[in-house]
Design a protein that fits this description.
single chain; alpha+beta; Tetrahydropterin Synthase, Chain A; 31% strand; elongated; EC 4.2.3.12
């Protein structure tokens, strides 16, 4: 059976502050620069979820794109859109809300609810120039 990679893209807006309690205030300022501003800042994120799987000979699909859309809404959009990640998302209460950690958070959530196929990659665009790829490693 042929294998294909299915990708869906969604967008969400969220605020955060790059800061870690493991460093002093001065160390945080030096490390994170303007992204450590005490009132935070926001991004319009673009997230791509890529699923790998065999193409079903009956349906012709790896996964129904509607199911993938619903999973992304539940695992990503409902939890992070128009939220302050550091305040509203428990996962970031003890770790910095870097794009890398956000990608891991999305991966973990998608892994738990993906009905079919194998999660292959999360591609998180924090800006047009800054992108994180995460494959569960």
């Amino acid at each position: 059976m042929p294998v294909a990679y299915l990708s869906r893209t969604e967008h969400f807006s969220a605020a955060h502050r790059l800061n870690t309690p493991k460093l002093s205030e001065e160390e945080n300022k030096t490390l994170y620069g303007k992204c450590n501003h005490r009132h935070g800042h926001g991004h319009n994120y673009k997230v791509e979820v890529i699923v790998k799987g065999q193409i079903d000979p009956v349906t012709g699909m790896v996964l129904n794109i509607t199911e993938l859309k619903e999973c992304m809404k539940s695992a990503i959009i409902d939890l992070m859109d128009h939220k302050n990640l550091d305040v509203d998302v428990q996962y970031f209460h003890d770790k910095p809300s870097t794009a890398e950690n956000i990608a891991v958070f999305i991966w973990d959530n998608m892994q738990r609810i993906l009905p079919k196929g194998e999660l292959h990659e999360i591609r998180l665009h924090e800006t047009d120039n800054n992108v994180v790829l995460y494959r569960g490693e």
